[in-house]
């Protein structure tokens, strides 16, 4: 869809994750083998005593806090024929240090609208890896995720059959919480929730070792919320009548003055880029709101803001792979990958009913 491969995997948990690993085994091994890529660099880093010990402590804490999700990663490794240790190192990249990537989010909640928009950004050399994966696991709500082979299907954008949608923004931390869980695992733990309330509670109750901003829309309650979960610190901000539209990029916005070790120094290059991109996104949203009758944003205006110059990333180091905008009030989603934007039913998208969806634009 829109130039993105889409695979649906169905069965019990063990079958689904083994088959997902097996289906993408060649690609996962190829990514692992690139000597100059991030995964290889991480494997070299964990050979350092301090980093290796940190990794072991975070892995142990993750297995304690998120046992089901930890088992899922082990099964993915088993299916791919890759050592589980290697996949753990790759999935803890943002918990062992900074992953160097971006992403931008918008959450909108009014009496008439509930919209969550997400730009999935990363290093340009990962562009061909990005795909859509639907997991239909016995006992879990079905869900569709923007996915990178080798990761738990959790670190980007997800729509679940429980009527919950969210995008994730990387939050770089200097000193991770070694008693927290790997952030991919916290996100995957929340995906398995039967309701938006449960998903929000799971995100708030399990601390991330590294950092993510969870930008969540819940159809049942009409709630749009941004939760910054970083290095053991959790702050929740709701869209409200006074501030119905929230945005987020890749720096802490809601914690006040970050404490020592929580965020890079003010002049850090990636921090400056995130703030600049955020200001442009905010300006685009303000401009579109001012130009609409009744000054009310909608899914199309959120999509346009995310695709605007200065928000859409087009550099080798930071490239926007997908833009997804979920219109929960009207059960539809706009997806743009490598092709033209496609609009389809949100419920059908989340459940992976590919043949039942009909492109409307």
UniProtKB/TrEMBL annotation:
<feature type="domain" description="Peptidase C45 hydrolase">
    <location>
        <begin position="111"/>
        <end position="282"/>
    </location>
</feature>
<protein>
    <submittedName>
        <fullName>Acyl-coenzyme A:6-aminopenicillanic acid acyl-transferase</fullName>
    </submittedName>
</protein>
<keyword id="KW-0808">Transferase</keyword>
<dbReference type="InterPro" id="IPR047801">
    <property type="entry name" value="Peptidase_C45"/>
</dbReference>
<dbReference type="Pfam" id="PF03417">
    <property type="entry name" value="AAT"/>
</dbReference>
<dbReference type="GO" id="GO:0016740">
    <property type="term" value="F:transferase activity"/>
</dbReference>
<dbReference type="InterPro" id="IPR047794">
    <property type="entry name" value="C45_proenzyme-like"/>
</dbReference>
<dbReference type="InterPro" id="IPR005079">
    <property type="entry name" value="Peptidase_C45_hydrolase"/>
</dbReference>
């Amino acid at each position: 869809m829109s130039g993105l491969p889409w695979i649906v995997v169905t069965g019990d948990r063990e079958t689904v994750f083994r088959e997902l690993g097996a289906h993408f085994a060649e690609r996962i091994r190829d990514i692992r083998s690139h000597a100059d890529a991030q995964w290889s660099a991480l494997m070299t880093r964990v050979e350092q005593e301090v980093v290796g010990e940190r990794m072991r402590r975070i892995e142990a804490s993750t297995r304690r806090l998120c046992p089901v999700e930890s088992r899922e990663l082990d099964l993915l490794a088993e299916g791919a024929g890759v050592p589980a240790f290697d996949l753990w190192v790759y999935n803890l990249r943002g918990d062992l240090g900074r992953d160097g990537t971006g992403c931008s989010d918008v959450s909108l909640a009014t009496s008439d609208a509930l919209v969550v928009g997400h730009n999935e950004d990363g290093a340009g050399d990962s562009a061909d890896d990005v795909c859509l994966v639907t997991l239909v696991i016995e006992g879990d709500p079905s869900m569709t995720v923007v996915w990178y082979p080798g990761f738990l299907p959790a670190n980007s954008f997800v729509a679940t059959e429980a009527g919950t949608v969210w995008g994730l923004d990387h939050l770089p931390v200097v000193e991770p919480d070694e008693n927290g869980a790997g952030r991919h695992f916290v996100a995957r733990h929340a995906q398995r929730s039967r309701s938006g309330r449960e998903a929000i509670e799971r995100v708030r109750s399990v601390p991330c070792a590294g950092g993510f901003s969870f930008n969540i829309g819940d159809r049942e309650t009409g709630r749009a919320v941004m939760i910054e979960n970083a290095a053991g610190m959790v702050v929740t901000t709701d869209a409200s009548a006074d501030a119905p539209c929230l945005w987020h990029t890749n720096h802490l916005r809601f914690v006040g003055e970050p404490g020592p070790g929580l965020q890079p120094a003010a002049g850090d290059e990636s921090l400056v880029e995130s703030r600049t991109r955020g200001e442009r996104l905010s300006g685009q949203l303000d401009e579109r709101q001012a130009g609409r009758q009744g000054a009310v944003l909608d899914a199309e205006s959120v999509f346009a803001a995310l695709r605007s110059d200065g928000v859409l990333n087009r550099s080798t180091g930071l490239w926007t792979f997908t833009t997804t905008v979920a219109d929960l009030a009207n059960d539809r989603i706009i997806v743009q990958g490598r092709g033209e934007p496609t609009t389809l039913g949100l419920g059908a998208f989340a459940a992976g009913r590919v043949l039942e969806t009909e492109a409307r634009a």
